Amino acid sequence: MKRDAESFTCAITTKVTEAEFKQLEQLWSASGMSRSEWCRKALLNQANLTNPNGNSHTVNEITVLLAELLALRTITVNLLHSLGSGEQVSREKLTNLTELADREKFRRAIDRLQQFIKK
């Protein structure tokens, strides 16, 4: 949805490093939006002042959801591998699998999100 140029009356400026600019440039280029439009949406989304495309989820909520999904996947794959190998799965083994998944889930989620952004 395009707005009239006159509805935007205030400006916010900032400076970034050359490396940060290149990273941001990849993001707005991939989005198909202009730099100004992308920066405006990113700023408002971060401040939770707007919901793009009617989506009420913030980046933090998406990261948590992805982290939990990846933890569940880690537990499931390791559990199925153990069962497929004929191993008895004790309560202690299941606790260890859960603790491993919990320790790594946010790092893995952030890695996945960064891979997605680079595409």
What distinguishing features does this structure have?
mainly alpha; 119 residues
Task: Describe this structure as you would to a colleague.
The chain has 119 residues and is mostly helical. The protein has four helices and no strands. The chain folds into two domains: 50 residues; 60 residues, no CATH class. The protein is 67% helix and 0% strand. The chain starts with 17 loop residues before the first helix and ends with a helix. The model has no long low-confidence stretch (mean pLDDT 84).
Q: Can you summarize this structure?
A:
By secondary structure, the protein is mainly α. The protein has helices spanning 18-31, 35-46, 59-84, 91-118.
Helix and strand composition category: mainly alpha
From the alpha carbons, calculate the radius of gyration and give it in angstroms. 21 Å
Total count of domains: 2
Please outline the major beta sheet. none
Contiguous uncertain segments of 5+ residues? none
Name the average pLDDT: 84
Number of helices in the DSSP assignment: 4
Distance N to C terminus: 25 Å
Q: Give the overall shape.
A: elongated
Number of strands: 0
Helix-strand string: HHHH
- Strand proportion: under 5%
> Helical content, roughly?
55-70%
